[in-house]
User: Fold Thiamine-binding protein from Streptosporangium nondiastaticum.
Amino acid sequence: MIVAFSVSPLGVGEDVGEYVADAVRVVRESGLPNRTDAMFTSIEGEWDEVMDVVKRAVAAVEARAGRVSLVLKADIRPGVTDGLTSKVETVERYLAEG
Assistant:
C-alpha cells in the first residue's frame, strides 16, 4: 500500500516548515520507502506499519501545536511492491513513447 499524506499544524502562523519537518523526520526514520514533495509525503508498506508511521508523524506535530490537519490518500493494492518507483516509471515510459 502507498499512502500520501500531509500533516500541518493549525494556529501557528504561516511558516509551518519546522513543524512539517518533525513529521517528515518520523517518516524517514521509519525505514519504509518514502518520498516528500511540496505537497505530500508518500510512504509504502503494509497497512499497520504505514498507519503507525502516519500516527506518529501526526503526534510529532501535535506535540508542538494544539491542532493538526491531516489529509490522507491511500492506494491499497495487495501484492504490489516498489509502487513508489514503478508507478512513476510507467508514466515516464508512456511519456517517452508519445
About this structure: Strands lie at 2-10, 34-36, 41-44, 67-75. Residues 47-62 form the longest helix (16 residues). The radius of gyration is 15 Å. The helical segments are 17-29, 47-62, 83-97.
